[in-house]
Design a protein that fits this description.
Blueprint: H1 17-28, H2 31-35, H3 37-44, H4 47-74, H5 81-89, H6 91-125, H7 130-145, H8 149-177, H9 196-211, H10 227-256, H11 259-262, H12 268-277, H13 279-313, H14 331-344, H15 350-378, H16 393-412, H17 414-441
């Protein structure tokens, strides 16, 4: 008598365009726009430059999205950027792209959000342990995502709708009730803002952190209905929506506060609202910010297990990560991600973490985006439901911008660059070893 082995479960195509847009807006708008405006005001000091840098960050995100959208539509597989790096440059670079995202960019991002959620809850309650509460937050997300993709995306759609309403309400309060004090103010006096190129570099790291996640919907390509048509709309639409919301938020802040008043604040939205309507209104904004963070952190737990799943499908991670339970969740990958984010949540060094993770992220993204030209040359046979407009000028300009930004970051922060480079070197070595073993096994 023979027993037949059940075929492995596959991810289900259940996500619509609106679900993907909710994922994009949900993960992008969160810790960045809440935690960085005070840092950026201190780095730059000038209201015009502050708004200009936020606009520049949105342009870079939009251009990057167009490049990535072509690759995402042509290669609609779970995992996102690691899929494009692996197809263009081979297994080792796929390993680097995937594991750098798991261990650094998205792992640190999820941990920072859990810490901020815990901090805001404690601020409202008056006491508590940030570490213990942050771990409880991580556990709560883990339990939610064991309920399956349908439950987690429904939660995401609802919380994203609430988030957009809150963001627009905060922007309207500042613009309508403020006296435009920041918009008409002089820049911070000499010595108060961070000088020269370093100030711009630090500001861009914070701004790019605030925009980061514009590509997250691509990680769930195998679960998107009609990915060739839907993914470009999700990616570009999400990035542009976020840029508009961010500019409105910053105009609102500068309508209520001067750059000097914003500088150093850990929650500018609260301070701007309190300046117009009093401390009670500021407390309401803390609650609203908490809701925003809850929506944003949810997508880390939604997207990262799919990266681990994609890596495992290509033998670049333990095979157990590719196992999908009856609810359509890569359960073992979710175990790993939750444990790693929970461990990182015990640190809480917000400013350093975003600077480190963005140095790593920009380095890896440069390699991934260069894969656009590699795939155009080596895989002309790929079906491309979406093609990047302005080829080859616009994609080349995008990559030049990334290289220039990376050079500036390394030049102005050599110590940080050395640490980030060491992390990437370690991942690269692990990738070489893993891919060689995989080839021997085959």
């Amino acid at each position: 008598m023979t027993t037949e082995t059940a075929p492995p479960r596959k991810l289900r195509r259940v996500l619509r365009i609106r679900d993907g847009l909710a994922v994009t807006v949900g993960i992008v708008i969160g810790a960045g726009i809440l935690g960085t405006p005070g840092l950026i005001a201190g780095y730059l000091g000038d209201p015009v430059i502050i708004l200009g840098m936020w606009f520049f960050g949105g342009v870079v995100a939009g251009l990057s999205t167009l490049v990535l959208a072509e690759m995402a539509a042509a290669l609609p597989e779970a995992g996102g950027k690691f899929v494009y790096a692996r197809t263009a440059w081979g297994d080792t670079m796929g390993f680097v792209a995937g594991w750098s995202e798991l261990l650094v960019t998205r792992g640190f991002s999820g941990a920072s959000k859990a810490v901020l959620i815990a901090t805001y809850i404690i601020g409202l309650a008056g006491s508590g342990s940030v570490s213990i509460l942050a771990l409880a937050v991580v556990l709560g997300y883990f339990v939610l995502h064991t309920r399956g993709l349908k439950a987690s995306t429904t939660f995401q759609n609802v919380t994203t709708a609430i988030k957009i309403f809150i963001v627009l309400a905060i922007a309207a309060v500042g613009i309508a009730g403020g006296n435009a004090s920041g918009l008409g103010s002089e820049a911070l006096v000499s010595g108060e803002a961070t000088a020269g190129l370093l100030g711009y570099a630090l500001a861009y790291q914070s701004i790019s952190f605030a925009y980061y996640g514009w590509e997250d919907a691509a990680k769930m390509s195998e679960e998107v209905m009609d990915p060739g048509r839907a993914l470009p709309r999700i990616l570009l639409g999400g990035a542009m929506a976020v840029m508009v919301l961010y500019l409105l938020m910053n105009i609102s802040f500068l309508a209520a506060l001067t750059p000097a008043q914003m500088a150093g604040s850990d929650l500018v939205a609260r301070d701007a609202t309190a300046a117009v309507f009093g401390d009670a209104a500021g407390t309401v904004v803390v609650v609203a910010s908490l809701l925003i963070l809850i929506s944003s952190a949810n997508v880390n737990f939604l997207g990262l297990p799919r990266v681990a799943y994609g890596l495992a499908q290509n033998r670049l991670a333990p095979r157990a990560f590719s196992e999908v339970d009856e609810r359509g969740t890569p359960r073992n990958a979710l175990y790993f991600i939750s444990a790693w984010i929970g461990l990182l949540a015990l640190t809480g060094a917000f400013e350093f973490l975003i600077r480190f993770m963005m140095t790593v992220a920009i380095s890896v993204d440069t390699m991934v985006l260069l894969g656009y030209f590699k795939l155009r040359a080596s895989r002309p046979d790929l079906a491309r439901p979406f093609r990047m407009p302005g080829h080859p000028v616009l994609p080349a300009l995008t990559i030049v911008l990334y290289i220039a930004i990376l050079v500036i970051l390394v030049w102005t922060q050599p110590g940080l660059a050395l640490g980030a480079g060491s992390m990437l070197a370690a991942i690269l070595v692990a990738g070489v070893v893993t891919t060689r073993r995989g080839r021997v096994a085959r």
